[in-house]
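S1.2 Input.
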Amino acid sequence: MGLMGDGERKSMEPIAARACPDPDKVNAQHLRLQNFITESPWDDHEVRKKAAEYCIPAMTRDEPISHWIVDDTGFLKQGKHSVAVKRQSTTSMS
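S1.3 Output.
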């Protein structure tokens, strides 16, 4: 839900901040989320399945899918100071 929910920034710290009702416990929430992402043994199959259930009806509303092009550069980079992140080419869709 962190990636599909509200909020423009989808890194672990902003997701943890949105999920934690107590501002004094955001750091602890961030550490728990980081541990879950990096250490927990989980299968991404169910996550991908839920993402497909969410997006395929919208993608096929007007016509059936014949080809898929997956392009992860569809979102503009947030901020200017992300470590090891280079500005990516994006295409604006209207």
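S1.4 Remarks. Helices lie at 12-19, 26-39, 45-59.
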